[in-house]
Design brief:
Chain lengths: ~775, ~260
């Protein structure tokens, strides 16, 4: 059939909406992109075809503004089995085992409906991992909200935490780590990034492929409804003032169905009944079908009349673009179609054969046999236009970075230092996250060796000897003040956190949360941050295996802080050699590793104590960062560390106090002299609260001190003894730069532990 | 001896219970599919934690009508050792194998943390490996673990020594602060009047492996294994059928679905 006759047939057979310039614009496509579509099609597309292009060429699916930047990232190493482009990245962790992991954002849905937005974000990333044949063993959530002084931010935190928790708890995947940051920059546009990690026997790795002409294409899991239509396009637009009009685009999650789908999918893969499998996630049937065909260079021919639906009268457009949750598209081995049905039936799940694989390179959709869409797969998936834009730094940022900070560099009295210390311990970005993580099941599956509240979570691997360490990290304030440095630090801090647990950092997944790339100042942030990430990934030997881009994070014309979030995974060869974050016993020596520079720019100290976002963020020397990681891994392997805790938000004094008050069997005292730390000539504020990079607080038994120092020297890492761990329930004594602070460890712990619940109690009764 | 672990749709601590029995205790375990009517000659039945049927309607309310529950109820009524953990405890209450009910935590939030428990009765099938008054630490992970019952039931439970585990602080006192969910009398676990059915909200299977650091929960499994083995040996010595082998013939149970 020629295009022209198809056109005529369509027009006659349906009362299709006329495609005007407005309709094209409503689909998020520019006039130039529309021209390109007309050229690809050789005719005017149907409304269903327009919807397909709109979804596939959205930022969410097509990466049109980020792809040229992402292509610069390192993606290969001997450990990487599957890099970017699949449902999830996969690394080889030895012993025949692989680890599949990926991070994804659900920012816009969570801004509109925090509970369901966060829940479906968790559901989507779980499916990305188990479609690789991996059993999910851990979830991490990286969250950013406005100030908790705001009722809206408290409502969003409450709803998001319930959403992440209820979903993972029900499916039975422990949520063991993450981060939570509070800053007015995220007031109307929270960031909800969720990482999932799964394990699989490598021989069972399966991909999202549609190979073999005639092989059955099956839709399984939940029925398709009218929810979330055009979620991918929604995620690629700026939110309107309250986002309320967008509520119908938010999907509803059903973790019970997800659990059944997880078990059924893993059984199908284990029994080798499938050619390929993919989550029907963003852009639903459209993206899963087109992407599976594109990966295999094949075509796909489906009839949406065969799709199990929730309601009568759905149009092909709606069925193709629905983002109803807990659905999978799979291509079965033809001889096993019956067995596939039998497995799904046993798990009480829908299974419908809706089409077959072809070799003509077309994504063809029918309704009762009648063709309603017919698009060449390759240009649809691969020719999404990409844009390299001109980035220009916002002059306001330049001015902030250059601001003189001398007036904040010193303290009037010891009391002022103590007040700053207590303000920081009470800052929601630093304080204990217990209020959050106690709402998550952290120990189901009995793999959790180190759970939340540490620098990295540690989980045992199925071989019983080795373990995995993982964390998420990112700093929007640093990236705002200096995108390239912010990108570098996100990677380096994540690597440091993993290494603090004793594990060797292996690979990363990344989630880029930025404003509209159309703005030159945002594009500048995006390109700078990606460049910095790439440099750090290369220097640390931790390639990128996949990730997610979330742009247009702004409301009322204000972008969020540019926030690259890194999910890092590392391997610990002997799980018995894991290192805790907190001090272990009185009398252990306390050492500081890494040099303190005269840096307070971009610090939590300036933000929390002076309400100031200014200065240059701390420098990140790549060689220094890599040497520190090597040293930590070697020191853990040599069993000379009792504890290791990264110095980040709040600097050395916060890292030291956290090490003391978070001790597993109750808070321990501390007696340290900060002046003894390796340092250049630094101000009092930089010594106490500056956030110089590549620094770690470690403790050791006195007998191991000499070996520890020698090991540091071998690795070219500065190290110095600053004091000792005190008595259980004792006193924290810190001195430095002419000041001294002394406080009961239990009082400091109380400030740290009550910061979040105290603020959240004020909103009692306000629940999602 | 053999443990049968029931797998409902939505069970998610089934594998953990399996590992506790096989890796922790060193005994045999099999999964029992919820649509089956065969307990596969299990000596002990475990209803594991999770969200059977997605907690739809009410936690445990639908699982109680699963096909396998006909056999589980008959097994328990005939004296077979039956252990319900978390969601399993909820199911046992819904099935009226244990008195009272489990309602939403008083905080109205899901709560996961390690809690202190005191072993209140160390002479049950499930606690004979502990000392009376022993303090153990076992994690909880639930949104609906607040145990409630009428006063007469609570009085009977206390008087008959059927409160087996109680939430306590580090000094062993059942304080309000030590109660993570608002349970009546800080009750964390109870046994049936006959003593062969235990329901508990904390997860002993999560602290039953050396590799995880502590094994405070392993005692629940060693206790019941010892009781079953000794019961069987005693029966063999007397030339009888094993005392605990009182499983009904398939289909012999009645009145379950009503």
């Amino acid at each position: 059939m020629t295009g022209a006759t198809l056109d005529a047939k369509r027009a006659a057979a349906t009362s299709e909406p006329v495609i005007t310039d407005e309709v094209v614009a409503e689909h998020g496509l520019s006039p130039d992109e529309w021209e390109q579509i007309l050229e690809i099609m050789g005719r005017t597309p149907t409304i269903a075809e327009l919807g397909i292009f709109s979804a596939m060429w959205s930022e969410h699916c097509g990466y049109k503004n980020s792809r040229p930047l992402l292509q610069t990232l390192p993606t290969e190493s001997p450990d990487v089995v599957q890099g970017p482009g699949e449902n999830a990245g996969v690394i080889d962790v030895g012993g025949g085992w692989g680890v599949a992991f990926k991070i994804e954002s659900h920012n816009h849905p969570s801004a509109v409906e925090p509970y369901q937005g966060a829940a479906t974000g968790s559901g989507g990333i779980l499916r990305d991992v188990f479609t690789m044949g991996a059993r999910p063993i851990a979830i991490f959530d990286s969250l950013r909200f406005g100030s908790l002084e705001s009722a809206r931010a408290r409502y969003l935190l409450d709803g998001v935490v319930r959403g992440v928790g209820d979903y993972g708890n029900c499916v039975g995947i422990p949520t063991v780590g993450g981060e939570t940051v509070f800053d007015p920059a995220y007031e109307k546009n929270p960031l909800v990034n969720v990482m999932c990690i799964g394990v699989l026997p490598l021989e069972r790795l399966i991909r999202g492929e549609a190979k073999g002409v005639g092989n059955p294409v099956m839709a399984v899991g939940a029925r398709t409804g009218r929810d979330g239509i055009h979620g991918a396009t929604f995620a690629s637009e700026e939110l309107d003032e309250e986002g309320a009009d967008s509520r119908p685009q938010v999907q509803v999650g059903d973790p019970f169905t997800e659990k059944l789908l997880l078990e059924a999918s893993l059984e199908l893969i284990e029994r080798d009944l499938l050619i390929g499998i993919q989550d029907m996630g963003a852009a639903g049937l459209t993206s899963s079908g087109a992407e599976m065909a594109a990966r295999s260079g094949s075509g796909i021919d489906i009839d949406v009349a065969l799709l199990p639906v929730r309601e009568e009268g759905m149009t092909p457009y709606e069925m193709l673009l629905s983002e109803s949750q807990e659905r999978m598209l799979l291509v079965a081995k033809p001889e096993h179609e019956g067995a596939v049905r039998e497995v799904l039936e046993r798990w009480d799940l829908q299974a419908a054969t809706i089409g077959h694989v072809t070799d003509d390179g077309m994504f063809r959709v029918r309704l009762d046999g009648e063709i309603v869409a017919e698009i060449p797969v390759r240009p649809l998936v691969d020719d999404c236009p990409t844009y390299v834009r001109e980035g220009v730094e916002d002059p306001e940022v330049t001015a902030r970075r250059d601001q003189d900070l001398d007036e904040y560099a010193s303290f009037a009295s010891d009391e002022a230092v103590q007040a700053a210390l207590e303000t920081l311990l009470d800052a929601p970005t630093i304080a204990s996250r217990r209020w959050i993580y106690e709402q998550y099941d952290t120990s189901v599956q009995t793999n959790t060796l180190v759970g939340p509240g540490s620098d990295a979570a540690v989980l045992r691997l199925p071989d019983g000897e080795r373990a995995l360490a993982a964390c998420t990290d990112g700093n929007g304030r640093y990236t705002y003040l200096d995108p390239r440095t912010g990108g570098r630090i996100a990677v380096a801090e994540a690597a440091r956190n993993v290494a603090c647990s004793g594990a060797r950092p292996v690979a990363v997944t990344n989630c880029l949360n930025f404003g509209s790339p159309i703005r030159p100042e945002v594009y500048h942030q995006l390109s700078g941050a990606v460049a910095g990430m790439g440099e750090a990934c290369a220097a640390l030997g931790t390639p990128v295996t996949g990730g997610n881009v979330s742009l247009y994070n702004e409301t009322g014309g204000r972008p969020v802080y540019p926030t690259p979030v890194i999910g890092m995974v590392g391997v610990l060869e002997d799980l018995e050699k894991r290192v805790p974050s907190a001090f272990v016993a009185e009398g252990d020596e306390v050492w500081i590793v890494g040099r303190t520079r005269d840096e307070i720019g971009g610090s939590e100290y300036l933000a929390a104590c002076h309400d100031l976002v200014a200065g240059a963020p701390p420098e990140l020397d790549l060689d220094e960062a890599a040497a520190l990681v090597r040293f930590l891994v070697a020191a853990a392997d040599a069993s000379v560390l009792r504890s290791a805790h990264d110095a980040s938000d709040g600097g050395l004094s916060i890292a030291l106090v956290e090490s003391a008050i978070c001790a597993g069997d109750g808070p321990l005292g501390l007696d340290v002299d900060l002046d003894a730390a390796p340092r250049s000539d630094v101000s009092a504020a930089a010594l106490w609260f500056g956030e110089s990079q590549s620094r770690v607080v470690v403790s050791c038994v006195p007998q191991d001190a000499a070996s520890l120092a020698a090991l540091a020297e071998t690795h070219g890492v500065p190290i110095a003894r600053v004091g000792a761990v005190g008595a259980s329930g004792g006193t924290c004594r810190l001195s430095g730069a002419g000041h001294a602070v002394e406080a009961a460890t239990t009082d400091l712990r109380s400030i740290y532990e009550t910061a979040l619940p105290r603020r959240m109690r004020e909103q009692a009764g306000l629940t999602a | 001896m053999k443990f049968g672990i029931v797998r409902f749709p939505g069970s998610n601590c089934d594998t953990d219970a399996f590992r506790a029995v096989t890796d922790g205790l060193g005994e045999e375990a099999v999964f029992l599919w919820h649509k089956s009517h065969d307990l596969e000659d299990a000596d002990v039945v475990i209803l594991p934690g999770g969200f059977s049927y997605g907690d739809h309607l009410r936690a445990g309310a639908i699982a109680r009508f699963s096909p396998i529950m006909r056999e589980v109820i008959a097994f328990a009524r005939a004296g077979g050792p039956t252990l319900g953990i978390c969601n399993g405890f909820q199911i046992l209450c819904e099935a009226h194998l244990l008195p009272g009910a489990l309602v939403r935590n008083d905080s109205l939030r899901f709560r996961c943390r390690e809690v202190g428990l005191r072993v209140e009765n160390a002479s049950t099938l499930f606690t004979n490996a502990y000392r009376e008054g022993e303090l153990v630490r076992i994690p909880i992970a639930h949104a609906g673990g607040q145990y409630v019952a009428d006063d007469a039931t609570l009085d009977a439970l206390e008087a008959e020594g059927r409160v087996v585990f109680r939430y306590v602080d580090v000094d062993g006192r059942p304080t309000a602060e030590a109660n993570p969910n608002g349970s009546a009398n800080n009750i964390a676990g109870i046994v049936s009047a006959e003593g062969n059915v235990l329901g508990m909200m904390p997860h002993p299977e999560r602290v039953a492996l050396e590799v995880l650091g502590r094994t405070d929960g392993l005692g629940v499994f060693t206790s019941v294994a010892r009781a079953v083995t000794e019961g069987n040996e005693r029966a063999v010595d007397q030339g009888n059928e094993p005392a605990l082998d009182r499983r009904p013939e398939p289909g012999a149970a009645a009145g379950v679905g009503s």
